[in-house]
TrEMBL record:
Protein name: Amino acid synthesis family protein
Residue ranges the record marks as coiled coil: none
Source taxonomy: Bacteria, Pseudomonadati, Pseudomonadota, Alphaproteobacteria, Rhodobacterales
Origin superkingdom: Bacteria
Signal peptide bounds: none
Region described as Disordered: 173-193
Length: 193
């Protein structure tokens, strides 16, 4: 399969002290790392594309390590998600190739997190933005960690590019009070509860 060609990367970090309620002394941190890569399948239909997932694995691992470190270390991460934006000469299925490399990379960096990594993907032009869904790393049903981060770049994806994205958070939403399963109640049996 073709070599992964990275044009640029972006690291986004947010510190949220309050959302109208009492300010926190330790802010909720949310971040994303984006890589703009050449889409080797742009402009044509290619029946066999799965091999590119293996080529993306090293990039996924590098991005997961960078993001976890930027948020204070893997032991602080409680939420995660992933996404991809595909340029107009590509197809949605090209973005789906990020599922395994992005998800497994975060699980490895986060010491075998159990929950499925939520994801989003779409085809869009330069400047397109995407909401990356986020859930708890060990139990998808922990409602306090249902979150998202909107990301994008003004000059990507170009028609022959893809933007691959990882997102992480350091805890629940800053003023979470919607009930449901709490992080302290996780059983860790199935990645759901």
């Amino acid at each position: 399969m073709p070599k992964v060609e990275v044009r640029k990367r972006l690291l986004v970090l947010e510190e949220i002290f309050h959302e109208g309620g009492p300010p926190r002394s330790d802010p909720h941190r949310r971040g994303a790392v984006l890589a703009v890569i050449r889409n080797p399948f742009a402009g044509r239909y290619e029946p066999e594309i799965q091999g590119f997932m293996d080529d993306l694995r090293p990039l996924g691992l590098e991005m997961a390590q960078q993001l976890a470190a930027a948020l204070g270390g893997a032991d602080r991460i409680e939420g995660y998600g992933k996404a991809s934006l595909v340029g107009a000469a590509g197809e949605l299925e090209h973005g789906a190739l990020w599922h395994a490399p992005g998800g497994y990379a975060m699980r490895e960096v986060l010491n075998g997190a159990k929950a499925i990594v939520p994801s989003a993907k779409k085809v869009g032009g330069a400047g397109a933005r995407i909401d990356v869904p986020i859930t708890h790393v060990n139990a998808s049903y922990v409602r306090s960690h249902f979150d998202s981060i909107e990301v994008g770049l003004n000059d990507a994806p170009r028609a022959d590019e893809m933007v691959v994205i990882l997102a992480m958070t350091t805890g629940p939403r800053v003023h979470s009070r919607s009930g449901g399963l709490e992080a302290s109640q996780i059983k860790g049996e199935d990645g759901l509860r």
